[in-house]
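subagent[fold] <- orchestrator: predict structure for attached chain, return tokens only, no commentary.
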Amino acid sequence: MSDLDVRRRLAVLASLLAVLISVPASVAFVAPYRFDLDAVLTDPGSIVDGGAGAAALFHWGAIGDMLYSYLLLVPLALYLHALLRPRKPWLADLGLVGALAYIVVGGAGAAILASAGASLIDAYATAPPPDRFAISTSFHVLTNLVFFGLWQTLDPIGLGAWLLSVGWLIRPDRRALGMLLAVFGAGLLGASVRTMLGLTGLNVLVGGVLVLLVVWALWVALDRARQRDRSAPRSA
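subagent[fold] -> orchestrator:
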């Protein structure tokens, strides 16, 4: 068995495990927010008064997120790098740097929330009223740092660079998928700029995703039309 085959098997196993963990972890993470995704994106510190139950859900949700969103992607990143590097080494290397930056930054943020964030929620529930303001302020600062500084500013840059590089390198074999990855990579870079400008909220995010899907669909339609024109018989 070649080294590439070993990497492929590890990537498949890790990806399957990530999918299995993602569902319960996502439910646990958003449950303290009462499944309000807009609150997750715009006011992540709002659950500081959720009590011990919210602290436990937040802790395990963040642990699961650290695994399925970040650490379990390491085998996939290494496999894609080994597979695609012969096509254009510098671009594949850039993609791997972006992938590892995304994994390290995002995973560290999730680990911080799992430990410090959950502890602050617990502390708020048992603290006397005069101390709660300081705990609430600390929790808001912590969540803003992770959600907005790490996850919505730095992480999209690393992930965007990874998707752009992979999408470009697989275009000769999978044109539509390659373009989709490239478009989403560019969209993630735009999302990072959006956060830098102070634009947050689920409506803006959903609107951006819809625009990216429309761009991808138009590109696929134009590409197929061009291929049909090339294959059509030419009159003498």
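orchestrator: received. Logging for downstream: The CA atoms of residues 4 and 79 lie 7 Å apart. The radius of gyration is 21 Å.
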